[in-house]
Amino acid sequence: MHGPLAVAVAATFVWLGMVLAISFLEAPLKFRAPGVTLQIGLGIGRLVFRALNTCEVVLAACVVIATWSSAVSMVTRMALLVAAAMVAAQILLVRPALTRRSDRVLAGAEGPRSHAHYAYVALELVKVVALLAGGVLLLLGSA
Description:
The protein has four helices and no strands. By secondary structure, it is mostly helical. It has one domain (3-141).
């Protein structure tokens, strides 16, 4: 495996690893750490997820560009585009609601929990499946 295809495989699995490590490990665990209040956890979460989403956009662009002219199957291409679409949906549709909620909490307001978190997690799950499928298909296609 050489050139753009190698870049696509590497970027796909780096992206998958980042999502798994941050969304499914760091995010839930930070609230269990001693002394971490809801406000501190939300402040950290906002920074971490802003950075994650920035990295995801860069990695998605790398994957799309690297596979654009490569001989990959339509199924592989669609899996990777689904992952990229999930990032776009998270950033454009879900994060604004999460930001509004965290702004209120950081300002000291109480209130019901945000259901936007469930949407974000659902999109993360779809993204993980799409990245895993796309990455494996890229590897199998290059064998």
